[in-house]
């Protein structure tokens, strides 16, 4: 049984109940919210592993909720929309949803998507945590993470590219490590600031942008057209390996 916690945000009580029931049947732990403000509060306190988010909500709409969640946490967000035009809106605004389903959708389809996203995230984490993909050993025996010609060696706190050690500032190293551990997930600037610089840091999110630029100069083949650290408009950055 997968006891991942899922937050459902939906203002139609019948649909909310149906979704809750179906997900619980699959063994998920479910928490719910029926408006945007409540959704943010629940996400912050419950720390779900995935969010199913209706686009049209009273008060704060799904797009705003999605944008704020992306700034604060890394987790899959599946959006529910009433019309295809709304899908265009989500895609056009690049709000950072991982996926979307147009109503009416089949519960089977929804469950398949939920499973797929949770699996994707779990694999990414396992890949980085286990020694499976982390295939290079540093001289003292600790595991390092490698992406093509790039090796992130945590124990030696160094990055190597084609076996050359790159000269990185300490924060550049921590930033790259944080991005790499969340490979494939869009990370908001506020989240990056909090995790890499800490709550008490006074500098603004420009600090993140500056460090990303420095990192790109060191790890990208063409820093002007990055392929490893991508900018996700309106959100922040995503490391693609
Ligand atoms: Ca709605």
TrEMBL record:
Residues 142-241 bind DNA. SMART domains: REC, Trans_reg_C. Residues 5-118 form the Response regulatory domain. Keywords: DNA-binding, Phosphoprotein, Transcription, Transcription regulation, Two-component regulatory system. Signal peptide: none annotated. The keyword Phosphoprotein applies. One of its GO terms (cellular component) is protein-DNA complex. Residues 142-241 form the OmpR/PhoB-type domain. The modification 4-aspartylphosphate is found at residue 54. One of its GO terms (molecular function) is phosphorelay response regulator activity. InterPro entries: CheY-like_superfamily, OmpR/PhoB-type_DNA-bd, Sig_transdc_resp-reg_C-effctor, Sig_transdc_resp-reg_receiver, WalR-like, WH-like_DNA-bd_sf. GO terms for biological process: regulation of DNA-templated transcription. This is Response regulator transcription factor. It comes from Caldilineaceae bacterium SB0664_bin_27. The lineage of its organism: Bacteria, Bacillati, Chloroflexota, Caldilineae, Caldilineales.
């Amino acid at each position: 049984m997968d006891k991942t916690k899922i937050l459902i945000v939906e203002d139609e009580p019948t649909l909310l109940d149906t979704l809750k029931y179906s997900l619980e049947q699959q063994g998920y732990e479910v928490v719910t919210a029926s408006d945007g403000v409540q959704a943010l509060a629940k996400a912050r306190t419950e720390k779900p592993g995935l969010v199913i988010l209706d686009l049209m909500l009273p008060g704060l709409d799904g797009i705003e909720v999605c944008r704020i969640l992306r700034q604060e946490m890394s987790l899959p967000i599946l959006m529910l929309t009433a019309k295809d035009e709304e899908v265009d809106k989500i895609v056009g605004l690049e709000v950072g949803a991982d996926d979307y389903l147009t109503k009416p959708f089949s519960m089977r389809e929804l469950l398949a998507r939920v499973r797929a996203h949770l699996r994707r995230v779990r694999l990414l984490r396992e890949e980085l945590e286990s020694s499976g993909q982390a295939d290079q050993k540093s001289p003292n025996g600790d595991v390092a993470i490698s992406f093509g010609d790039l090796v992130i060696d945590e124990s030696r706190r160094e990055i190597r590219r084609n076996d050359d050690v790159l000269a990185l500032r300490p924060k550049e190293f921590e930033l790259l490590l944080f991005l790499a551990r969340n490979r494939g997930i869009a990370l908001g600037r506020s989240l990056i600031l909090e995790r890499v610089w800490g709550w008490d840091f006074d500098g603004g999110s420009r600090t993140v942008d500056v460090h990303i630029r420095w990192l790109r100069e060191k790890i990208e083949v063409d820093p002007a057209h990055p392929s490893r650290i991508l900018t996700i408009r309106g959100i922040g950055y995503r490391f693609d390996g």
